[in-house]
Write a structure and sequence with these properties.
four-stranded parallel sheet, 11 strands
Length: 315
């Protein structure tokens, strides 16, 4: 009798959890991890996850071509508005070259055909083996394990935030579900500096083997006739002194050891000294990202090739 009762409890618990799991992850889908249901209340999301990129990749099977953006929070604002073209922003992959190469290398011919161009942010803190993905998010069982492990109170709270964001249509930042790009609705204002923000120090640990994947990505692009633009993030002038410039220069030398060249935007006279281009000391705002893109389009003097390896400008 007790065994039957416990069995009923177990079955009931599994059914209730399954319904709850379906509602949170499939119907609401606050991080755009499944991408089946799209409606007005989940059009704008508050954050993404390591599974979000799978949903965005499916768009490459459509009839449209897209410009892809790979990077971190420092390239998250590269959107259709900024680039003036259809964009898929893979911020959720978070910039590690090995993770990105593994995704590109598995694309079908149709998906490759629908890639118009690639922007690749060379962010200084992702070139380490610690940033490698620990499991293949393309496989069903690792996906399910990740979803089960992360179906929690935080996800419920983010679901509520997402609903409120879409219901109230308030002036806030959000992630566009269709592109993966971050959108800042508020008008760009001059960054506020504090003593704490000026003490910010970057994480610069790196492993040389990670840079090899930059070369593999560039070779893949050449084989598939896809233009790729490598560029570094731009920093506010007063925090560059917090960097170990020897390590930063070594990283840039490793870029050139593996790829043909990149745009070195670490310090720019007209941007790095102007607070109106920044959200905080290490992130440009929308105005700053547009200014950066103009330099890629019109000012090739910032491009560093293999013959220019000793000409880095760090202020």
């Amino acid at each position: 009798m007790i065994k039957k009762f416990l069995l009923k409890i177990l079955i009931s618990s599994i059914i209730i959890y399954s319904i709850f799991f379906f509602i949170i992850n499939v119907l609401i889908d606050p991080y755009n991890e499944i991408g089946i249901f799209n409606y007005s209340l989940n059009k704008r999301i508050v954050k993404d996850s390591i599974l979000t990129y799978n949903t965005l990749l499916k768009k490459l099977n459509n009839q449209e071509q897209y410009t892809l953006v790979f990077g971190t929070s420092r390239s998250h604002l590269l959107s259709e508005e900024v680039l003036n073209e259809k964009v898929l922003n893979f911020h959720s992959l978070y910039g590690n070259p090995k993770n990105i190469f593994n995704v590109l290398d598995k694309l079908s011919k149709k998906e490759i055909h629908n890639i118009k161009k690639i922007y690749f942010l060379l962010d200084f803190h992702v070139f380490n083996t610690e940033s490698y993905r620990k499991f293949d998010t393309n496989n069903f069982f690792p996906q399910m394990y990740y979803l089960v492990r992360n179906t929690n109170s935080i996800k419920i709270e983010d679901s509520i935030k997402m609903f409120l964001l879409n219901l109230t249509n308030n002036n806030d930042s959000y992630i566009d579900r269709n592109s993966g790009s971050a959108i800042i609705v508020q008008k760009d204002e001059k960054m506020k500096l504090t003593k704490e923000s000026l003490k910010w120090k970057p994480f610069l640990k790196y492993d040389e083997e990670v840079f090899l994947y930059l070369g593999r990505i560039e070779s893949w692009c050449k084989e598939n006739n896809i233009e790729i633009i490598f560029f570094t993030p731009t920093l506010y002038s007063d925090i560059i002194k917090n960097f170990d410039l020897d390590i930063l220069k070594k990283q840039k030398e490793l870029y050139l050891k593996n790829i043909d060249g990149f745009y070195d935007f670490t310090y720019l006279d007209d941007i790095s000294n102007d607070r109106t281009f920044f959200r905080d000391v290490s992130h440009l705002n929308t105005k700053g990202m547009k200014a950066l893109l103009d330099k890629i389009k019109f000012e090739h003097k910032y491009y560093i090739g293999k013959d220019d390896s000793l000409k880095f400008k760090l202020k």
